[in-house]
Amino acid sequence: MSGVGEKVSGTTKTPADFLKSIRGRPVVVKLNSGVDYRGASLSRTLTCLDGYMNIAMEQTEEYVNGQLKNKYGDAFIRGNNVLYISTVNMTVADGA
Amino acid sequence: MSGEEEATVREPLDLIRLSLDERIYVKLRSDRELRGKLHAFDQHLNMILGDVEETITTVEIDDETYEEIVRTTKRTIEFLFVRGDGVILVSPPLRTAA
């Protein structure tokens, strides 16, 4: 499996490395149900996660079909529901 | 390997522990939500909740008008064991933030 994931920025090579590298970064978490969760602003980030993909995030916004549905002060998401975790590039925030 | 590594990396479950004996909001599968006091939980997110209000949301589509009718049903339960595999999300109760 060498070579897989080398497109990813810099040092991450395995999923485990990715999970170590994203703590404290802004992410988008998409669930199996299609709902996705983002930090409410670029400074709002993933607090921590574990090997089961359980996730803790601050100031999370919930989007269903692209529409903002809910906001949470802190959110713990059970890992089995997670479809993916994606990092977000820190560019100028597009107006929401 | 890398320079700094905390001796005890905090897991999401450690942070849920901070909510013990506090009221929390739980989102479950099947469009259900719970609000109650967290008495206990485990790594599966099995939980014991007290003084719980459950909200079930259903969306009906009218055959003729195709309008969506959103209904919520609520019930209160004094003491509840929640099986962890149904849990999607846990959060402190939604507050009116400043």
Automatic annotation (TrEMBL), chain A:
Compartments (UniProt record): Cytoplasm; Nucleus
GO cellular component terms attached to this protein's record: cytoplasm; Lsm2-8 complex; spliceosomal complex
Annotated keywords: Cytoplasm, mRNA processing, mRNA splicing, Nucleus, Ribonucleoprotein, RNA-binding, Spliceosome
Entry GO MF terms: RNA binding
Pfam family, one: LSM
Family designation: Belongs to the snRNP Sm proteins family. SmF/LSm6 subfamily.
Protein name stated in the entry: Sm domain-containing protein
Organism from which the protein derives: Arabidopsis thaliana (Mouse-ear cress)
